[in-house]
Structure formats: C-alpha cells, structure tokens
C-alpha cells in the first residue's frame, strides 16, 4: 500500500537497526533518516547516521516531523532476560533517557518496546501484532505516543501457535519464531516472507527488526491524525 502525502515530511528512526520501521514509514511516504550506534551497511532508509541515538535526538530531533525510537530491550526483554542474566550480560537501560530527549525536542514521537519490564514503564497507547496485518509472526510490540494520538487497534485472536521447539516439545502453527538459532525456526526465506523484509538476508538483522507493516500503520495514522487534519 502506498499513501500519497504532502512532500518532504521527515521521520527520524532512532535505534534504526537494518530498518524494519524505516521501511514502513517509507511505504507511508516519509523521507526517513536512521541513527544507530553500529554500522548498518544494509540499512534501507534515505539517510544513515552512525552515532548515539539520545545524543542525536537532543541535537537534531527538532528537525523532524515525527521521531520513532525503539531503544534496545535486551536488558529485560522477556525473550532474553533469563538467558542473559545467566551469562552476566549488562545492557544499559535507555528508555527513560530516550523519552527525556524526545520530550525536549517538542516534536511528536513514538516509543516502541516488546512486552517486558520496560513496557511496564511506558504508557501503552497501542499494541500491534502480526496477525493484524496477516503476517506469519506474532511479534507483539507496545507503543507510547507523544504529542499525538490514534485509535487503539483491536487485538485479533491468534490463528494458532508459534511453530517450533519449546521446552523439549515440538509445536506446529501458522507463525514463525523469528529470533535466535535452533531447530525448526524456519529458513531465511521463511523469515523474510513472514516479516515482510526483503532487503537483508542476515538472520540476526531480521531477528532484531520490527515488521515494516507496523510502522506503515503508525505512519498512516500519524498523517490522518496530525498532518492531513491541519489542511
Ligand atoms: C532491536 S534493534 C532496532 C530495530 C529497529 N527499530 C527496526 O525498526 O527494525 C536495536 C538497535 O539499537 C542499536 N543501538 C543500541 N544502543 C544504541 C545507542 N546508544 N544509540 C543508537 N543505537 C543504538 C543497536 O545497534 C540495534 O541496531
């Protein structure tokens, strides 16, 4: 789907990774600049800046029409918390510093997190799920919206289970588990198809990404709520 919108609207995708959200905002018609602390040679956006996201938001956030920030969640993500605690990993908690930087810009923003402890420190204005977009992943993501709002989407009943091996038991189902390694998780092609991501074939990059369909939805809702209503 491609929505025709006024030219020149710019999104800053902070913590952009390979650009799952970036691609969705592009599909909604935005020009997207990504910022990430690590090089992202396969980033799909219009412009890439390597650097610290909080620092960039503070300095340049006001230059954008909408800022989307998905600070890394590994320090408490439900998928990794137990495993990482066992390995003694330390991840900085960037949710509050990111929100403070976003507030400073005076611009509309979106904060995105997977379910987990960090989500409990957010006002959850929307939860998106792959089933809402006909994807073969569930991949719930929570969103806090700053300086704009949209109708809360209705969560749809899942059609079955996530396929794969869990706790020594094999499950069949219509959804792929797009994370980690291990048996029965699907091929790279399966993951690309399930997520709607075709510009990288690197498993880790797909596993860290947000399905573009989520950001396409947010982008279209933002246009309807803010930009087009002002005309
Ligand atoms: C889960 S990925 C984000 C996925 C992405 N939001 C998407 O749309 O697909 C988290 C990213 O945050 C980046 N990152 C971690 N700390 C950072 C920091 N301080 N500043 C900028 N990027 C950072 C990591 O390199 C990683 O690419």
Strand content: 15-25%
Largest sheet: 7 strands, mixed
Average pLDDT works out at 89
The strand count comes to 9
- Helix content, binned percent: 25-40%
Structure description:
This protein is α/β, with parallel strands linked by helices and 231 residues long. The protein is built from 8 helices and 9 strands. The model is unreliable at 80-89 (pLDDT under 50). It binds S-adenosylmethionine. The site of S-adenosylmethionine has 17 residues, from helix 1 and strand 2.
Keywords:
single chain; 231 residues; alpha/beta; Rossmann fold; 7-stranded mixed beta sheet; two-stranded antiparallel sheet; globular; binds S-adenosylmethionine
Topology, element by element:
Elements: E1 10-14, H1 20-27, E2 31-36, E3 47-50, H2 53-60, E4 66-69, H3 81-87, H4 95-105, E5 109-113, H5 117-120, E6 126-128, E7 141-146, E8 164-166, E9 169-171, H6 188-195, H7 203-208, H8 212-227
Parallel strand pairs: 1-2, 1-4, 2-3, 4-5
Antiparallel strand pairs: 5-7, 6-7, 8-9
This protein binds S-adenosylmethionine (SAM).
């Amino acid at each position: 789907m491609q929505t025709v919108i006024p030219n020149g609207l710019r999104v800053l995708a902070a913590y952009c990774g390979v650009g799952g959200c970036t691609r969705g905002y592009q599909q909604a018609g935005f020009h997207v600049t990504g910022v990430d602390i690590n090089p992202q040679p396969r980033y799909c956006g219009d412009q890439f800046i390597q650097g610290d996201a909080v620092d960039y938001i503070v300095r340049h956030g006001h230059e954008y029409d909408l800022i989307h920030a998905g600070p890394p969640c590994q320090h408490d993500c439900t998928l990794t918390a137990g495993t990482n605690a066992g390995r003694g990993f330390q991840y900085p908690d960037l949710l509050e510093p990111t929100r403070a930087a976003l507030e400073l810009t005076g611009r509309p923003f979106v904060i995105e997190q997977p379910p987990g402890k960090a989500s409990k420190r957010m006002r959850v204005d929307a939860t998106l799920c792959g089933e809402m977009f006909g994807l073969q992943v569930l991949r719930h993501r929570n969103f806090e919206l700053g300086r704009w709002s949209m109708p809360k989407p209705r969560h749809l009943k899942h059609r079955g289970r996530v396929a794969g091996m869990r706790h020594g038991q094999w499950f069949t189902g219509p959804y792929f588990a797009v994370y980690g390694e291990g048996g029965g998780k699907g091929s790279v092609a399966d993951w690309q198809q399930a997520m709607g991501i075709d510009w990288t074939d690197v498993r880790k990059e797909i596993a860290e990404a947000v399905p573009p369909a989520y950001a396409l939805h947010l982008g279209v809702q933002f246009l309807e709520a803010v930009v087009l209503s002002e005309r």
